[in-house]
Amino acid sequence: MPQFLLARPDSWYVQRRVVQELLGHLRPESAISHPHLDGDMDNESPHRPEPFVFEDANDMFHFHFPSFPSADEISDLSSHPVLELIPQNSPGSLNDKVKHVLVIRKPLTFQEENMYTPQFSPSAFFRAIDEFRSGTEGTGQGASQDSWRIGDAFMYGEVVSSTQTMFDKNPSFLRALPAPVVSLATIQLAGRGRGGNSWLSPDGCMQLSLKIRVGLKGSSSGKTNWFSLLGISGSYCWVAGTAIRPSNLVFIQYLYALAVVDACHALDPSSQWAHKVRLKWPNDIYGLFPCDKPGSKMEPRKVGGILVNTSFGGGVADVVIGCGLNILNEPPVASLAQLASSGSSASSLSVECAAAAVLVSFERIWNSFLQQEEEGFQPFMDQYLRSWLHSDQLVTLATRTPHKIARIIGITPDYGLLRTVPLSGGEFIDLQPDGNSFDMMKGLISTKKQ
Question: What's phi and psi for 385, nearest 5 deg?
Fold first, then answer.
């Protein structure tokens, strides 16, 4: 199904800027000025911009500039009304590679949301963004026509293949797309998890991908060490403005996990259930649920996960952060609503509010990280360890021959490795987040099977 390219109503210019950047990539001669585009995308202009196609490795993005038909103009009442916004002669209705993107002139009205986005309310999402931002200070990136904040640029589709794949597997589109931008779907047909796993998307799940861009620090003398450590080849250069060491990119998954925990506390102002949300290394979100087993009071069950993909070029990293979080799911799927079922905040939970809370929290944490980037993860270590499930946990390291029993003691602040100490004594054993699998129930860490 098609996706809407939207923007926060008070920052509607962001939608136009996204289109301009994409057109500038396709037609470099018009990168500075786009004749008729600005005027044609104005609410009062009688002209509509011409549709265009952005073809990439995995998908072909068809951008349309529709007008909404009246109710009596909708020809097929048996299909989803949003399909009426795609021109009848548009190719690709049966081609999975074709992704239709609808660029509308103004924010959806309440009636239009009920018709075209009945499973998700963009206006409720943007209101929640404003509400959660009102409680933060110093997190903005400026209000110029060339910058905007996380959550201001927003793509929504009721049914998509994968929000992560749409960004991550289309390198030209990813590079041309300005940042930050969010893609959210109600249903994913091919959702992705870490290490090639699938992510199921039952009703009530928040599924989004956020694209950010950050410059990379470096010099010709330091390039080989940093990039060989991360398994990256190629050249890169200094980027003016905000930049981080390449080795610090690993912390993005931990920072986003902290943002999920922080968002849960924002969604639970009376502190009735958010303290039950915990982190499993390296990228899973768990909840502590009542357990029926004798001698056990609480049982950890997975409610979400995080997937980070990074693309490098021209001295910058384009980072795509995918997150699936069960918000309103019914049993047997564990969800935040079930954690909050006995609390007064349960009735206020929604996918719209949860997505807004996570994005606003991540923006605050990410900007704080950038300001203290030289310190690595150290400023966030205590908060992370308070939120995770593993303090002093004993594990069997199947990554060693013979297997070793070790105690988990934390995360290394420089490279984000899981630090363990063998019970038999000796030096620390540090484990990379990528390439290792952690079976928490069995207390077993092993090499991840590809």
Answer: -70, -30
CA angle 412, 212, 196 (to 5 degrees): 65
**8 A C-beta contact, residue 427 and residue 406:** no
Look up residue 349 and give its amino acid: L
The pLDDT value given to residue 342: 64
Higher pLDDT, 239 or 2: 2
AA letter at 425: G
pLDDT of 114-148, one tens digit each? 999 999 999 999 999 999 999 765 545 445 566 89
Count CB-CB contacts under 10 A for residue 388: 21
Question: Tens digits of per-residue pLDDT, 136-190?
Answer: 655 454 455 668 999 999 999 999 999 999 999 999 999 999 999 999 999 998 7
Structure tokens at 275: 């303290």
Q: Report the range of poorest mean pLDDT among 12-16, 31-35, 261-265.
A: 31-35
Tokens encoding 295: 């001698």
Q: Which residues pair with 318 in a beta bridge?
A: 213, 311
pLDDT of residue 214 exceeding 90, the answer is yes
Helices 252-267 and 351-371 meet at what angle, rounded to 10? 130
CA–CA gap between residue 297 and residue 289 (Å, rounded): 8
**Helices 122-133 and 351-371 sit at what angle, rounded to 10 degrees?**
40
Find the angle CA(231)-CA(399)-CA(395) to the nearest 5 degrees.
Answer: 120
Q: Are strands 418-422 and 284-290 parallel, antiparallel or unpaired?
A: unpaired
Tokens of 140: 């903005």
| CA 394 to the chain's CA centroid | 32
Can you read off the two tokens belonging to residue 56? 């990439």
What pairing do the DSSP bridges indicate for beta strands 436-439 and 444-447? antiparallel
Residue 115 has a CB neighbour count (10 Å cut-off) of: 17
